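Quick illustration, no need to memorize.
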Amino acid sequence: MKFSLGPSLFFWPKKQVEDFYHKAINSSADIIYLGETVCSKRRELRGKDWLNLAGNMAQELAADNRIKDKEIVISTMALLESPAEIQVMKRLCDNGELLIEANDLSAVQIMHELKMPFVVGPAINCYNLSTLKVLLKQGMTRWTMPVELSGDWLKNLLQQAEQENIRDQFECEVFSWGYLPLAYSARCFTARSEDRPKDDCQYCCINYPQGRKMNSREGQKVFILNGIQTMSAYQYNLINEIAELDKLGVDIARISADSEQAFTQLTNFKQQLETPARYVLDTVKECNGFWHQIAGMSVA
């Protein structure tokens, strides 16, 4: 099993992003995703900047004999709202070198037209064998399971793929640690929380490097507001299920780039696969409910 570092879902200053990914190429991640997946107004790094950063990382990896077998992947946005955003995505897709993670069906179509392989990200709703077959015909080589699906659902779907003799045609990746990206909206919740219109948001989400916490009326943590994205208030943690993922035939476990804590989690997950131990999850800040078909914010 390999371990990936998912794209950063939060809005960070350019220098912080560059420093983070400099550390990422020296981390234990086998696959590194990078790119803006949430909002096109986050312009600390534009499309060309992400390509330059990814290209520089790839060159550094190629020139450094100490660092081998790492893959760099460019991630696309999950919700596109204008022709200009589609043009940016087309330039990302047609980069001529790096693999693309498609988080929207328009990116899937573009990659199909380019006759290039691609990764299907967790934002694409692929829940059954029929959809998997369609995506394979389009050129998919890796599928990331939507975060709300359970272990039993994945087991059944992979068994169906085996029966149809298509399981060897794609890798399976599972979001295994981090704040869960749950939903996207045309409305910017962070701007609204500061009583700003979306068109004059003043890029306020950069002031919340891990989003804005939202509690229920009773004071219970419920969500994190991250621009147009709604996330879980608890960090998903499948470290105790990593052996089960491996047994199911999952190829890649994804660690989200929530903060530099992700680098520690990469190490922890790899150690767990090699030397299993039972972790006691912190119910104040962690969850694993979706995997076990219970309330998402719960711990099984």
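The first strand starts at residue 2 and ends at 5.
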